[in-house]
Amino acid sequence: MTTTDLGNLARIGRWRLPRRHVPVLATFALLLVMYGIGVSQYRAFSDIQVVFNAFIDNGFLLVVAVGMTFVILTGGIDLSVGSVVAMTAMVSASLLQNGLPAALVLLIALLIGPTLGFVMGCVIHYFEIQPFIVTLAGMFFARGMCNWISNSSIPITDPFWTGVAQERIGDPRGNFVSISVLIAFAVVAVAAYALAYTRLGRNVYAIGGNPQSALLMGLPVARTKIMVYTISGLCSAIGGILLSFYTLSGAPLIAVGMELDAIAAVVIGGTLLTGGSGYVLGTVLGVLVLGVIQTLITFDGTLNSWWTKIVIGGLLFAFILLQRLIGIRKK
Amino acid sequence: MSEVRTRLAAASGQRLFWPLVVLVVLIAANTAYRPSFVSIEVKDGHLYGSLVDIVRLSAPLILVALGMTLVIATGGIDLSVGSVCAIAGSMACLHISQAADQNSLSTLFTALGLALGLALVAGAWNGLLVSVIGIQPIIATLILMVAGRGLAQLITEGQIITINSDPYRVIGAGYWLTLPVAILIAIAVTLLIAVLTRRTALGLIIEAVGGNAEASRLAGIRARRITFLVYVIAGICAAVAGFMITADVSSAAGSTAGLWIELDAILAVVIGGTSLAGGRFSLSGTLIGALIIQTLTTTVYAMNISPQTSLLFKAVVVIVVCLIQAPAFRARFARRRPPATPTVAAAPQKEQVPA
Amino acid sequence: MGRQPVLTMTTISKTFPGVRALDSVDFRLFPGEIHALMGENGAGKSTLIKVLTGVYTADSGVVALDGQQVSFTGPMQARAAGVSTVYQEVNLCPNLSVAENIFIGREPRILGAINWRELRRRARALLARLELDIDVTAALGTCSLAVQQMVAIARAIDIQARVLILDEPTSSLDSSEVAQLFRIMRQLQNEGIAILFVTHFLDQVYEVADRITVLRNGRLVGEYPTAELPQLALVEKMIGKELDALERLDEQPKRELAAVEASTPLLEAAELGRKGSVAPFSMTIHAGEVVGLAGLLGSGRTEVARLLFGADRPDHGRITMDGSPAAIRTPIAAIARDIAFCSENRRIEGLVGELSVRENIMLAMQAARGWTRPIPRRRQDELVRKYIDALSIRPADPEMPVRNLSGGNQQKVVLARWLITEPRLLILDEPTRGIDIGAKAEIQRLVVELSDGGMAVLFISAELEEVLRLSHKVAVMRDRRMVTQLANDDTLDADRVMATIASGASS
């Protein structure tokens, strides 16, 4: 820095400002390109319902990824989400089978995830054990609970569940979304609002930026850290409910590996795995990218499902490299 | 009495004390439930018994965990080992399945060579990302964890490749000198890594890099090379584990071979007392860690609980072992006792010269 | 100054295990003054500030704000009472915007939602008060360090701060940025805020400070109006001149420079420098020569050592060894040319705490051989035993984790590490700081022995007596540049070196 005038320095700063938006914009561009390829290759792709279907098929992933965004923004990680999704679906199916009223089942199902998240957050914060290990234990625990409840899939026949699952909200031309998509959008909206307009949200960013500073600035680090794992647990629980709407059953081995999809969506959406930078909107785009890849591969017919993983891996690499190149990984 | 107590205290300070206690308790519980648990008998010149089974079944995990130990000791982590298992196993099975004579030894060795080559490339890729490009290990290896699984399925074309090769089958299910070959391989690799790290200076250098990277740099250690090397070793270990897993069932499924083994391996390392932050590592600790995990799984089987529910117990054991070893947790308990001096906060000479 | 002090600290004492960090220290701060707190390492500046802000609790003594006795439980409470601190390292979040960094934790809100418009407006107003024209929506990490520092100040003064503590705020700023900072400090001074200013740069003290309080070894040396304290007197008061009785016994005749300078230099640095670290300097070191580096803390002593060792990459100048050019850009290159470096920061840059004494001692030699050629255990034990005895490392247990050793013994372990590599140039950065007097004398004796044996030594120390006793010549550092090099003949004494440090002129 040889510039003498601070005003100049600041102006340089102003010019650099969009940097933190670059990853999200890149994701958006990628999404457009992929959609463009789809439309140019397959006529049916231009049907707006294709986009809706991407949301319908990935609504639960979107909700889970939103929760993961909170955790990753603080620089943590939550490996338990897939299992918690499965556990929530499993508990709901099992309780409904036992004849409990739908409202009560919903309430119970929505409480389990956040409770587990809260406990994990406390262990991570107070005993200073790495989030990776603690949430791994959480993952085992939740998956174990699924199998403990039942070794096989439990169908859901509750009228409320089937009603929600079959409800189609659409325009007269026949395009539609499910209620799950609306719930997912609501979660996204609440999360985006919380991150941008509440102290909790800003504390999440501050902790991700520099945890020591956050502590010295007098921010409630403990509360915030425990809160993000609780939020992630809540999102997983909601994701589990949506999944049970989608499949109308609870299965012990469903959503295995969903944590990886969620992490991938968050990273592709431009959030730094080291924390402190990223947006919920980016995560939405990340989930859409995953959805469009699946759709493209389905449309192609000759490509097989494993290409999805290879492409996701490639995209992960590209985005991590991009983050390094534009240097927002500030030390 | 007090002497016993001090001895106990000294013993419990040892790194391997708590992991060993857990292992012994598990075995004791099994024996109490089913006294035949500890018996080992010879049938057809082969050793049989629950304990032998546990060691045999834990062989792949031991291999992966040993490689993981070295990676973690440098302060890194390798999430991709499960995928590398699948890639190597699939590659070997693919080559054998395409050969005219599946039982020929030359086919076997070409297959193993090809697969090891792939694993080498995978390890080198991870090493490159971490040591040269400087990406955080957990992120760098996540890439191959996701993409590698796809690559393995690409190799098997989404099918389960079934092979009919006796020599290959030996790797996972054969016996030699009354012992399962898998155990022998695990012992051999353990010894090899022990020699590689403890008879050369590799172990010391790895611990120095993981313990204090800056001090190591100033002492003239080429940290990048070492970091690169441990990821390659982890890749090779994973490949051998992949051979065992696929050989045991004489088939390779790209989507399931070695699935989640990286998590078990990380657990084994952590249970064995190697800190995730890097530094001092313990190969014997890792060994015990891997045995604990497998014993737990076998125990649950033996007690007629659904195998998947074993995850519940695993979660409990993980948390208990990690809590016991966590300094913060110990400190909390120490505080209940007489008010021992809390950690002496930064001494007065905190002022540092600006760098 | 006829007014009442805003802050008084009386007879503050604080003891850490083994160290009396503060011994009955008094301190006063008046509204609208800039007050420099001066002292070398271990003088107690940091401890005093930490007692003031409630990080530490004093063992005895009274802190009073506006005449009211106070006892803060932590920096947050101190801030709420109007005592704010800005540290050398900016403790803000680089990923958040400038405005947010100023207000996070107390953002203006409407119905629970953060009012961004109001937040930015207030941030602009606050920065305007500091006459700073910067974009408040820019991420802090994209701003220069100077701007970050000023944002930290803005955050500190936003709540009605009456006392502002600036702990080495200028150490990473260039001169124009410092000027900017000083303008803001004067601005705040005019508003009646009392500023406690800690710095190592003498020029800066004389430029802005009204009064100076000097601490040495945890004791108050005195409080002086800046105008009445010449630079030389200040340096004397900071460094002190009392010779320890034990050291006096050791006094040796001055070392002969001409004899060692006859041969070709072992190492010659020509205009070696690095931006933001140390201005280009030239120096030569001969075999068997001890070159002392004198200067205050933060004067660039360590930076010189790091450049010569390749720990930092020089961006200017050349190094010549044995008459031929040597590219020393990494520690490995330096070690290959038989250069060794004992960092002043043993814990962070020297030792691997978990590893044993033996392993730490063997590290550099082993690294040079490569991991494939281990040093046989018997040879290790031999070497380690030899140096544990030679340097009397205690406890003499080679397998003890090195973090359990005392500071002096840790220092000897680092020394042993390098001595077994038989270097030709040994760079010692503050080898005697923070260690007991016995160990200190031993290390000094060792330096003499090594140089007599033909080893070149670059000896860095804040203690002039020590530098003068050991060195053939003394290079004087001030404000990140090498002022001059003085032959250590009979005419050179501590007073003359101090005068050189104080004036900055090459006398």
The main sheet of chain A orders its strands as 1-4
Q: State the order of secondary-structure elements of chain A, H for helix, E for strand.
A: HHHHHHEHEEHHHHEHHH
- What's the rounded overall pLDDT mean of chain A? 86
CATH top-level class of chain A: Mainly Alpha
Number of strands of chain C: 22
Our Rg estimate of chain A from Cα atoms comes to: 21 Å
Globally, the shape of chain C reads: globular
Largest sheet of chain C: 6 strands, mixed
GO molecular function (chain A): transmembrane transporter activity
Membrane topology (chain A): Multi-pass membrane protein
InterPro entries (chain A): ABC_transp_permease
Protein name (chain A): Sugar ABC transporter permease
SSE layout:
The complex is a heterotrimer of chains A (331), B (355) and C (507).
Chain A lengths: L5 H11 L5 H20 L6 H26 L7 H17 L4 H25 L4 H19 L4 E2 L3 H8 L1 E3 L5 E3 H19 L1 H11 L1 H6 L4 H27 L1 E2 L7 H11 L11 H21 L5 H20 L6
Antiparallel strand pairs in A: 1-4, 2-3
Helix pairs in contact in A: 2-13, 3-8, 3-9, 3-11, 3-12, 3-13, 4-5, 4-6, 4-11, 5-6, 5-11, 7-11, 8-9, 8-11, 9-11, 12-13, 13-14
Chain B lengths: L1 H12 L3 H17 L7 E3 L2 E3 L1 H24 L7 H18 L6 H29 L3 H20 L3 E3 L3 H8 L1 E2 L2 E2 H19 L2 H10 L1 H6 L4 H27 L1 E3 L7 H11 L11 H20 L7 H16 L1 H8 L21
Chain C lengths: L6 E10 L2 E11 L4 E5 L6 H8 L7 E6 L2 E3 L4 H6 L2 E4 L11 H6 L5 E2 L2 E2 L1 H14 L15 H14 L4 E5 L7 H16 L3 E5 L3 H7 L2 E6 L2 E7 L5 H9 L5 H5 L7 H5 L5 E8 L3 E8 L4 E5 L6 H9 L6 E6 L2 E3 L4 H6 L2 E4 L3 H5 L6 H13 L7 H14 L16 H13 L5 E5 L7 H16 L3 E5 L3 H7 L2 E6 L2 E7 L6 H10 L4
Parallel strand pairs in C: 3-10, 3-11, 6-9, 9-10, 15-20, 15-21, 18-19, 19-20
Antiparallel strand pairs in C: 1-2, 1-4, 4-5, 7-8, 11-12, 13-14, 13-16, 16-17, 21-22
Write a structural description.
The complex is a heterotrimer of chains A (331), B (355) and C (507). Chain A has 14 helices and four strands. With 331 residues, chain A is mainly alpha-helical. Chain A has one domain: ABC transporter involved in vitamin B12 uptake, BtuC, CATH 1.10.3470. In chain A, strand 2 and strand 3 (176-178) form a beta hairpin. In chain A, helix 8 (179-197) crosses helix 9, helix 8 runs antiparallel to helix 11 (221-247) and helix 12 crosses helix 13. The longest helix of chain A is centred in the C-terminal third of the chain and has 27 residues, at 221-247. Chain A starts with 5 loop residues before the first helix and ends in a 6-residue tail after the last helix. Chain B is mainly α. Chain B has one domain (51-328): ABC transporter involved in vitamin B12 uptake, BtuC. Chain B has helices at 2-13, 17-33, 50-73, 81-98, 105-133, 137-156, 166-173, 181-199, 202-211, 213-218, 223-249, 261-271, 283-302, 310-325, 327-334, and strands at residues 41-43, 46-48, 160-162, 175-176, 179-180, 251-253. Helices cover 36% and strands 24% of the residues of chain C. In chain C, helix 5 (145-158) runs parallel beside helix 6, helix 8 (231-239) packs across helix 19 and helix 14 (357-369) packs parallel to helix 16 (407-419). The B-C interface holds B 199-202, 204-205, 207-208, 211-212, 214-222, 226, 279-280, 344-345, 347-354 and C 14, 16-17, 19, 21, 41-42, 44-47, 56, 88, 168, 171-172, 297-298, 301-302, 309, 311, 331-332, 335, 341, 343-345, 348-355, 359, 362-364, 366-375, 417, 433-434.
